[in-house]
Design brief:
Blueprint: E1 5-9, H1 16-32, E2 37-41, H2 47-54, E3 59-63, H3 80-84, E4 89-92, H4 95-101, H5 105-117, E5 121-126, H6 130-134, H7 138-149, E6 160-163, H8 177-195, E7 203-206, H9 215-219, E8 226-229, H10 236-248
Helix pairs in contact: 1-2, 1-10, 5-7, 7-8
Length: 250
């Protein structure tokens, strides 16, 4: 059985003080949610402080990105080995990284390899733009991103995938539960081509305007193994509700 993962991507939001306040605001209720894995991914500057607050709880911690080199003259970057002692997960290949910072499939591939080598659990993001969706190219896009990003990477139980249609991120326009389930089914088929039956154990999340209002409908779908949540993860009541709704379905 694939254990659902409810992950919050805070993106470039919260100061250090605000991050600690936010973690504390959701910690007791989120920690009490059972049967699902809970994960928060604050900005780099808040990881160590969040780790201290979450110590002794069931809530996991993740980073939003990493470089593919272990160390070196890469001003402003953070390596997987720097993260390994602080957090457990790292988000890689997010559409905003691809769009604004030039993270190609090849770059994401290097980052996944480096993250796994450092003992981290990578969350690989894939998803199509609006024009690609309207042109009926969703399957082709996610297939290309998955195969390109996972080239030369053997099956690993730590790997998580997140399908995030770019047109649904931060827009308030989520994919329907049927659309999300169908595309995640495509993602799983691609993984089956790479890893055989082991693909059935890979958790594939949905992300893109997930809220407390649509969480149950999405999480009911058989291919959806949780959510990668943006805006709603900055609202303690919303984020805890999404995790609890997911738990209630099990």
């Amino acid at each position: 059985m694939r254990i659902p993962l409810i992950a919050g991507n805070w993106k470039m939001n919260t100061t250090l003080t605000e991050a600690v306040t936010l973690v504390n605001a959701m910690k007791p209720r989120l920690d009490a949610v059972q049967k699902v894995e809970k994960l928060v991914c604050p900005p780099f500057i808040s990881l160590a402080a969040a780790a201290d607050v979450l110590k002794g709880t069931t809530i996991k911690l993740g980073a939003q990105n990493c470089h593919f080199m272990e160390k070196g003259a890469y001003t402003g970057e953070v390596s997987p080995t720097m993260l390994a002692g602080i957090c457990e997960y790292v988000i890689l290949g997010h559409s905003e990284r691809r769009q604004y910072f030039g993270d190609t499939n090849e770059v994401v591939n290097k980052k996944i390899k480096a993250a796994l080598a450092a003992g981290l659990k990578p969350i690989l993001c894939v998803g199509e733009r609006l024009e690609e969706n309207e042109a009926g190219k969703t399957g082709d896009v996610v297939t290309g991103q998955l195969t390109g990003s996972l080239t030369g990477i053997d099956y690993d139980t730590r790997l998580v995938i997140a399908y995030e249609p770019v047109w649904a991120i931060g827009t308030g326009k989520a994919a329907t539960a049927e659309q999300a389930n169908d595309t995640i089914g495509i993602c799983r088929s691609v993984c089956a081509g790479l890893y055989g039956k082991a693909a059935e154990s890979i958790r594939i999340l949905y992300g893109g305007s997930v809220t407390a209002a649509n969480a149950t409908e999405l999480m009911r779908k058989p291919e959806i193994d949780g959510a990668l949540i943006g805006g709603a993860s900055l609202k303690p009541d919303e984020f805890v509700s999404i995790a609890q709704q997911t738990s209630d379905l099990l």
